[in-house]
Design brief:
Largest sheet: 8 strands, mixed
Structural class: alpha/beta
Number of domains: 2
Oligomer: single chain
CATH topology of the largest domain: TIM Barrel
Number of helices: 14
CATH superfamily of the largest domain: Metal-dependent hydrolases
Shape: globular
Strand content: 25-35%
Mean pLDDT: 93
Length: 389
């Protein structure tokens, strides 16, 4: 995935860690940053800004309805150079074979896919799934270098009540020195403490700042999610300035039309428009995921892999060029990643649903007012409420 030629780029280098911007020339050789030369001129607004690429710190590629190689073709347009990808959805249908498919397809394109081992397949005992991924299979996946973490532990009751299967999966991640992602919407107090103490390090499900602050106080990293289905940015964005080192940005689910319009870059633009410190925003978007998941992508230092982007400004984050391992993969809104032949796997079995199957039998749910409970969807959230109608 690396370019073998030598070239240079010049612009305003954004040193996120030191909160400094200066004119510089980057020399790239064999897909790595050979050296960085500071220029005599200070910041030149007429030149592009050079910075590390964006990382989506939690996403299900399957929700884009694209295979990984096609997802990459769109994501690089917006400066995304890597994703923390949870293949739970395809595993729920095809098992470990689905995870294998995602890994192998992702390898065919110049993009950094960092996959996790699905922790909850099926998601619950009440689900009719196409496959099951057991403790042994999870341990085998975690032993592989292509697997960087244990994917979101949705079964938080299993953690709280020490379910043997759940705890075995967490212990496997700890044995392989890989982080455990969380999923515990609304979990608070002693229950949240116990969940986090089990070794779970992140949560992308917070929908109130009070919940996020409590989990941060217990040592957790909070992922601010702004995707196609769930939108939590407005509730949580102040955390980027107040708890910078423990905040990351993610989409969770990104539909293809939404991905075509923007990705992590659009979250950064909104955060800067709120008046947040641009270096704190970029730490959450570019640096913190690399540190937390120990990603081999670098952070724009000499010797690092040449994964970087050039943007027009630090306000709108319009991406002019994206480089991955020294290869120019996107320029001026045009992807340079080629489509690759794909043999898609699937496992879809469904009987026709008749209207009678959805009817509520008379007196099935007795209520003195003659009402029945229904699920109420909340706009922009994944949580649900019960209503009587």
């Amino acid at each position: 995935m690396s370019s073998t030629h030598t070239f240079s780029v010049t612009g305003n280098l954004v040193d996120i860690l030191n909160k400094h911007i200066y004119g510089a020339t980057l020399w790239i050789e064999d897909g790595h940053i050979k050296r960085i030369e500071a220029n005599s001129e200070p910041v030149n607004p007429g030149l592009p800004y050079i910075m590390p690429g964006f990382i989506d710190s939690h996403v299900h590629i399957e929700s884009s309805m694209l295979v990984p190689s096609e997802f990459a073709r769109l994501a690089v347009l917006h400066g995304t150079i890597g994703t923390i990808s949870d293949p739970h959805e395809i595993a729920n249908v095809c098992g470990v074979a689905g995870v294998e498919f995602m890994i192998e397809n992702g390898k065919q394109t110049p993009f950094h896919f960092f996959f996790g081992a699905p922790s909850c397949v099926p998601a619950t005992i009440f689900e009719t799934a196409g496959a099951e991924v057991n403790e042994k299979e999870v341990d085998d996946l975690l032993a592989r270098p292509e697997i960087y973490y244990l994917s979101e532990m949705m079964n938080f009751p299993g953690v709280l009540y020490n379910d043997p299967s759940v705890m075995a999966k967490i212990q496997s991640a700890q044995k392989h020195n890989k982080p455990v992602d969380g999923h515990a919407p609304g979990l608070r107090g002693d229950a949240a403490k116990k969940y986090i103490a089990a070794g779970i390090s992140t949560d992308h499900e917070c929908f109130t700042i009070e919940e996020a602050l409590e989990k941060l106080a217990y040592g957790m990293h909070i992922l601010i999610r702004e995707g196609s289905a769930a939108k939590n940015f407005e509730a949580l964005y102040p955390l980027i300035d107040s708890h910078t080192s423990h905040i990351m940005l993610c989409s969770d689910d990104k539909h293809p039309d939404s991905l075509a319009a923007g990705h992590i870059n659009t979250i950064c633009a909104r955060a800067v428009a709120k008046g947040l410190d641009v270096f704190n925003v970029l730490s959450a978007a570019c640096i913190n995921p690399v540190k937390h998941y120990k990603l081999p992508v670098g952070i724009l230092n000499p010797g690092d892999p040449a994964n970087f982007i050039m943007v027009k400004d630090l306000i709108h984050f319009e991406v002019l060029r994206t480089y991955i391992s020294g290869e120019l993969v996107a320029e001026n809104g045009i992807t340079k990643i080629k489509s690759v032949p794909t043999n898609v796997i699937n496992n879809f079995n469904c009987e026709k649903i008749e209207p009678a199957a959805l009817a509520v039998p008379e007196n099935e749910y007795p209520n003195k007012n003659g009402l029945i409970p229904v699920i109420e969807a909340l706009d922009g959230q994944l949580i649900r409420k019960q209503r009587l109608v």
